[in-house]
């Protein structure tokens, strides 16, 4: 049976360093829902600073990052700018642009390559 793929893996260029100094680079992002885009608009942080919308939005759609128990806005705030930009680009590619690929870096050598996002996969 073919199922519509809604989650996509990624590898951060630099990674998120948690409070223990552990680095988290491998993660998963899911497709956004209408609620993911609308509900954060009610958040006071977004109302005070519209740029904060990206932080809230990514914290909702990044479902896994390394061994972290949860991806919160604080985690997204703690990303290096290059990794934040990578996640924003990935979000746009899979949700808005309708493209079927995004850039990802090899965790071993750092080589950046374009990864195809399958429209469906067998389960």
Question: What do you see in this structure?
Answer:
By secondary structure, the chain is α+β, with helices and mostly antiparallel strands. The chain has one domain. The strands form three sheets. The chain has a three-stranded antiparallel sheet with strand order 2-3-4. It has a two-stranded antiparallel sheet with strand order 1-7. It is globular, with a radius of gyration of 15 Å.
Provide the fold topology.
Elements (H helix, E strand, L loop, with lengths): L1 E3 L2 E11 L5 E8 L3 H5 L5 H5 L4 H9 E4 L7 H5 L3 H15 L5 E5 L6 E5 L3 E3 L1
Antiparallel strand pairs: 1-7, 2-3, 3-4, 5-6
List keywords for this structure.
123 residues; alpha+beta; two-stranded antiparallel sheet; 7 strands
Order of helices and strands: EEEHHHEHHEEE
Strand-residue fraction?
A: 25-35%
> Unreliable runs, pLDDT <50, ≥5 residues?
118-123
Give the CA-based shape: globular
* Overall pLDDT confidence: 86
State the end-to-end distance. 6 Å
Q: How can the largest sheet be summarized? A: 3 strands, antiparallel
In DSSP terms (H or I, runs of 4 or more residues), the helix count works out at 5
How is the largest sheet built, in terms of strand order? 2-3-4
Helix content: 25-40%
**How many discrete structural domains?**
1
Structural class: alpha+beta
Number of strands: 7
